[in-house]
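Q: How would the C-alpha cells look for this protein?
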Amino acid sequence: MSAIKRTAMMRRLLTTIGLGIVGLLALGSRAEAQEIQLTGPLAGAPPARHLRLYRDGRFEIAPTMSFTLLDEYERTILFGGRAQYNLTDWLGIGVWGAAGISSPTSLTNEISTSAPQSVETQVNIPNCSPAGSAYTARGSAGCPSFANQTGKINWVFAPQVQVVPFRGKLAIFQKIFVDTDAYLHAGVAFVGLTERADCGPGTGGPSSCSNVPLVNGGANSFGTTGSMAIAPTFGLGLNFYLASFVALGVEYRALPFDWNRSGFDSRGAGPNNNFPDDKITSADQTLKFNQMVTISLGFSLPTKPKVSD
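A: Here is the predicted structure in C-alpha cell form.
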C-alpha cells in the first residue's frame, strides 16, 4: 500500500472519529438540558398558583327559570331553584326542583279549532256534533277543547351530581375576562304530570272513550288525571362568575320518559300493541326525549372562595 493511500485512509478514519465525538457531545448536551428541566425550581410545582376555588367547600343556592324545547302540544316554563354543596372544586351534590306553567302550542290550537268532528276520530278528539244535532264548537260550553286533554309537566324534583371537568377564563372582546367553568350533571328526576284519564271497557273510567257531556248523557271521557314519572336526567352547563359569590348559569337538561302527550288512543292492540284498541291506558304512552334550557343566578356561602397555594 502506498504512502498516499495510507494517508487518505487515516484522514477518513480521523474524520469518522471526529463526527462520532461531536454527536456524543450533542447527545450529552440535550440529556443535560432535560435533566435541568426535571430538577429545576419548577419541578413538582402545580399548574397554577393562587387559583380561586369558587366551588370547594361552598354551599350554593340558585333561583332558576327553565324553558322546555321542541314541544308538540304544550310548552312549559318552570320556576324553581337549585341547592347544592360542593365537596371539592370539581364535585358537588344537590337537588333541583321547579313547578311548571303550561300553554298550548299553535298545533294544539289548530287541532282544537280546525280538526273535523267525525265518528272516525271521536275517541281521540271530542265530537260534539252527533248525527242530527247542531255543530258545537270545541271549547264552548259542554264541548271540551283539545287542549284540555293534552299532557302537561306540572313539577320536577331531581337529586343530582355535578362534575366539573373544565374551568378557565372567558374573554369578551379581549377586554373583559370572566372566570368560567363547564360542568356535567346527572341524577334521577321525579316528574309530576297531567295526562288524559283512562277510559274504555275494563279501565275503571268511562266505558266509552268517545263520551262527552253532549253525547248520550255519558260521563266526560276527555278529562285528565295526575300521574308521576321517574326518569334519568342529565345534561351540561356553564357558570360565569360575576363576583366572588355570584354566578350566572346556563344549563341544558334532558328528561327521557314515557307519557301520553296528545291524549290519543295510539296503541294497545295488534302485534306488539302497536295499534289502537279504543281505550286510553298506559299502553298509549310513548317515549319522549324531553329537553329544556335553564337560566340560573347562584349565590355561594361563604361569600369568599378559597385560594390555592
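The chain is about 15% helix and 45% strand.

The chain has two domains: 1-39, 53-307.

Upvote if useful.
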